[in-house]
Design brief:
- The structure is a homodimer.
- In chain A, helix 4 crosses helix 15.
- In chain A, the strands form five sheets. Chain A has a six-stranded mixed beta sheet, with helices on both faces. In chain A, strands 11-13-9-14 form a four-stranded antiparallel beta sheet, with helices on one face. Chain A has a three-stranded antiparallel beta sheet with strand order 4-5-18.
- Chain A has two domains: 281 residues, Zn peptidases (Aminopeptidase, 3-Layer(aba) Sandwich); 122 residues, Alpha-Beta Plaits, CATH 3.30.70.
- In chain A, strand 1 and strand 2 form a beta hairpin.
- Helices cover 36% and strands 21% of the residues of chain A.
- Chain A is α+β, with helices and mostly antiparallel strands.
- Chain A is built from 15 helices and 18 strands.
- Strand 11 of chain A pairs antiparallel with strand 11 of chain B, so a sheet runs across the interface.
Chain lengths: 456, 456
């Protein structure tokens, strides 16, 4: 790897310049005014692969094009699929940016621009590591496939159908995604678990129209009263979800995981200070990290009923509604949950109230077994790239494409985040540490080697 | 009373013409464009009293004038204060009126106009009965005082200070108000009880800003979860309020009251059909009428938190809030309730949530003892005026001025409603039955006689 490492050192400046080229393209997928910029970014990425003499396709979809590139198979070595996205969030509010969002500017070792960390900068590390192999060794030690989409920031509506229709093309042994964060500054991490989600809207209808709460109060079911009673019955005061069967498929946290979590330098006082809260509360019997990363939850995301204006209005509302979601851990089945939830809510629904439960979407949680050789390979590569052994963490959110890869391609995903929590993803002044950019490239280059040594 | 009854018969047409004069004045108190019309209506009412040679004052307030008139005291007979209002609700939406709101039109024995029943038509009955006494007998058998305000439809902000400052002027033995409804067509009623109210807003604050429900869910208290848990803890599934001490001062319904309620021709199936509900639910152990009229309640009037738009947003809200109110029965003290409620909510509030409880307003419930001689007098008068014995009913809403009269003047109020439930109060096509208008005048004329026989 010496030649490669040397090549990376010698090309730092060029890599940064190229990254800035990509960051200058305002590929905002949510804004149709940027349609041409989105196309330009796709072309720019495709050009990178063309420069490496990889087989490249720019594949149109109902939305923005997918860039697909691949190197030849290598006998006995695995195939690895790299997923990333070239589209970015809108930059608003513009006035809060210290330097313009599409004029990448370096301050204190960070490049500031929309997309710096999410996901142009992180995704680009895997292109540069690949180029380094090809420029020095002349070939890759394993087959790489790149799937770089342009609709991640608007829901990836065309991605799953594409994967479904192209299972052979995308066939691989493992997926690599760099679109997350390190545990903290100077502490790289491998994210080996994501929670799933099941999201619902509950709509309750009582009387035909809003009634006078004096004349009718006590005589007729109040949908807002019913709503709070029904929702509060879904979780007890110990933070345990009360939908029958909810925990049946929840694997207990292993001793190893709990020990690993406990070793992480998580500062609860600092966490509370950042959030502006004076206390924390969640499922009894688990630490804050365990509750955020590895335990299922019930959270109300929205509530509405009756009069929300100023002052007092004595109305008995005709309707009430809520949006709420469960975060799920692996093996919990959103469909099974939906059925049990609907049954429970119907039992709780009082006379005189009609209920409708809208099932928005469900995605199961995923974990990569810590014992997986892919995880070991990633751990070694990151140790070499960052000069520090990565910690193993999970993440409370959901990255639906990871579940899709698992379901449709039957493979696990390595989530190797080079970003930091305070990179201002989706916010003004998005940034990416250039040191981490280069460490990411080096880790990626070493990853190809370590992964190539796993028998496919 | 024969002369009086004969006079009333002979003057039916004139009474109706005069009522129409008053109804033609668009005295909409909520609309400053009608300021002059409001003043005109006050003058018109004052002129009526001047025509009867009563002592009249048109008293300016910070808002609209109060018309006050009185007849001389009668030794040994009580003084009676008649309260009413000359202002009306806005007529919108205008397009839904079959005839213009300020061009009174008679159809099927009803006069259609804004203010027909609320409260010009009903209030006017007491002026005409008084005039009948003066025109025939030459004097009243008791002292009458009239307090006719012009801000009832906008909250009567200037009324309580006026009463407070004029206790001597307003001193009386009983108050009479006609601004409610009969039990049903052909079934007059005396409303002898009103519920009080205590209205609150609960504001919960969690993290400084909305958080990602995946990354943070389970780790930090969710204000919307806390809100539904706290609110649902205020009432159990049997419909019983769970604030400590809430029922301590609630008198049980008497056997007589329950028997009277049970005798009323209340059609529960028809009630449900009108409301569009398939079932009713309220405090266990009580009938629907008992629950609406004579039992305290807890109703949520408004709810809000997080995302209320279309689709799914995975937000852990920073804030949640609710408006809610208790309807109270006599002897329940809103201040005592506020203290117990705040204590209970603070106990329920989980770590990481800050709560604020806003106490909007409280008014106690009131009842007139059924054994009161004033009630008997009213019952006899109505029997004579309507040709049918009135039933005794209560009303679930609150008429704050009734509690004010009780508190500041130490007197009960007779609520003698000549209207009907379907009079479209506050709605297009407001109406008042002319037959009931004349029955009301006759009842009122007889009421003065029956009340005069009570020793003051």
């Amino acid at each position: 790897m010496q030649n490669i490492d040397q090549y990376l050192e010698q090309n730092r400046q060029r890599f940064e310049q190229e990254l800035c080229q990509l960051l200058r393209i305002p590929s905002v997928s949510a804004d149709s005014a940027h349609k041409a910029d989105v196309a330009k970014a796709a072309e720019w990425v495709a050009d990178q692969f063309r420069g490496m003499k990889l087989k490249v396709e720019l594949i149109p979809t109902a939305g923005n094009p997918i860039v697909f590139a691949e190197s030849p198979p290598v006998a006995g070595a695995p195939s690895v699929l790299v997923y990333g996205h070239y589209d970015v969030q809108p930059p608003d509010p513009l006035t809060e940016w210290k330097s313009p969002p599409f004029e990448p500017t370096v301050r204190d070792g960070n490049v500031y621009a929309r997309g710096a960390t999410d996901d142009k900068g992180q995704m680009f590390t895997h292109l540069k590591s690949t180029q380094a192999w090809l420029a020095t060794v002349g070939q890759l030690p394993l087959q790489l496939k790149f799937l770089i989409e342009g609709e991640e920031e608007v829901g990836s509506a065309n991605l799953e159908p594409f994967i479904e229709a192209n299972k052979d093309k995308l066939a691989c042994n493992v997926v690599v995604i760099s679109d997350t964060s390190q545990f903290g500054p100077g502490q790289p991490a491998i994210t080996y678990g994501l929670r799933g989600i099941s999201y619902y809207e509950l709509r309750l209808k009582g009387p035909m129209q809003d009634l006078h709460s004096g004349t009718f109060g006590g005589g007729v079911s109040n949908p807002a009263n019913a709503l709070v009673a029904m929702l509060s019955a879904l979780i007890n005061e110990r933070g345990q979800v009360q939908v029958p069967g909810f925990y049946d498929d929840v694997d207990p946290l292993t001793g190893r995981e709990r020990a690993e979590f406990a070793k992480l330098p998580f500062d609860e006082a600092e966490f509370m200070r950042k959030l502006g809260v004076k206390g924390l509360r969640g499922e009894e019997g688990f630490t804050t990290l365990e509750r955020r990363w590895a335990r299922p939850t019930f959270d109300i995301n929205g509530l509405w009923s009756g009069y929300q204006g100023e002052g007092a209005k004595t109305v008995l509302p005709a309707k009430a509604g809520a949006k709420f979601s469960f975060r799920l851990v692996p093996k919990q089945d959103p469909k099974k949950l939906s059925a049990a939830l609907e049954k429970k809510l119907r039992e709780l629904c009082p006379p005189g109230i009609e209920m409708e439960l809208v099932d928005f979407h469900g995605a199961p949680g995923v974990t990569v077994p810590l014992e997986s050789p892919f995880v070991s390979a990633a751990s070694q590569a990151i140790s070499e790239g960052f000069g520090k052994t990565p910690v193993f963490m999970r993440e409370g959110g959901s990255i639906p494409v990871v579940a899709t890869f698992h379901e449709l391609l039957g493979v696990d995903t390595l989530l190797l985040g080079w970003g930091l929590d305070d990179d201002n993803t989706h916010s003004p002044n998005e940034k990416f540490s250039l040191a981490d950019f280069h460490r990411g490239i080096k880790s990626s280059a070493h990853l190809w080697r370590h992964l190539s040594q796993i028998r496919a």
